[in-house]
Design goal:
This protein is mainly α. It is about 70% helix and about 0% strand. It has helices at about 1-10, 15-35, 55-85, 90-95, 100-110, 115-125, 130-145, 155-175, and strands spanning about 145, 150. It has a two-stranded antiparallel sheet. Helix 1 (about 1-10) crosses helix 5 (about 100-110), helix 3 (about 55-85) runs parallel beside helix 6 (about 115-125) and helix 6 (about 115-125) crosses helix 8. The longest helix is centred in the middle third of the chain and has 33 residues, at about 55-85. The two termini are about 25 Å apart.
Length: about 180
């Protein structure tokens, strides 16, 4: 399995995704620093809105990092898995003398457990990378949006339910891969 993961690492050129994640992290840090300390949230009386307390800066940090990394991992999974099915290269990989479950699991191991497995499942069902990316945007709207006073962002149970749901989707994807081309 380790050898298969190394081969997937080389094939998908994961190093550039690691580089892009580091660049994304740098931009997020710079943006949030500017939001808190460089006058983006500056009041006319000279006091900064976001800098004085943790409560005022934690919501934007959670929002922007959640959005950025959910979309980033959805794009990664869509490019690794959905496009492989779409381009029929996954059929070639399934001819290797390796279990199909191991092949798919080695491709999914790069992002560990995120809500993007839900987006991946939608993309696999529709056989579209674009559907996976659009679903990640819908998940962001679902988890971060406010409707009046009602929000899912402050609810502790909702992220747990989404994590369990994403684990379920990941397990279903791996378990059903043996019968995928037989239907």
């Amino acid at each position: 399995m380790i050898k298969l993961i190394k081969l997937e690492w080389k094939k998908n050129r994961i190093g550039r995704y690691v580089r892009n994640a580091a660049i994304l992290t740098g931009f997020l840090c710079l943006f949030l620093f500017a939001l808190a300390f460089l006058g983006i949230a500056d009041d006319p009386d000279g006091t900064l809105d976001a800098a004085p307390g943790m409560d005022t800066i934690s919501a934007p940090v959670e929002l922007f990092t959640g959005m950025a990394y959910l979309i980033f991992t959805s794009v990664m999974l869509a490019s690794f898995i959905v496009s492989a099915y779409k381009n029929k290269t996954m059929n070639l990989m399934f001819t290797y003398p390796v279990k199909r479950r191991n092949i798919l699991a080695s491709q999914m191991v790069f992002v560990i457990v995120t809500m993007s497995f839900i987006a991946l499942s939608v993309g696999m069902a529709m056989k579209s990378s674009k559907a996976a990316i659009v679903t990640s945007f819908f998940l962001i709207f679902l988890t971060q949006a406010n409707v009046g006073d009602f929000t899912m962002a402050g609810n502790a149970v909702f992220p747990l339910v989404l994590t369990i749901l994403s684990l379920g989707f990941a397990i279903l994807l791996i378990c059903n891969v043996d019968n995928k081309d037989l239907l």
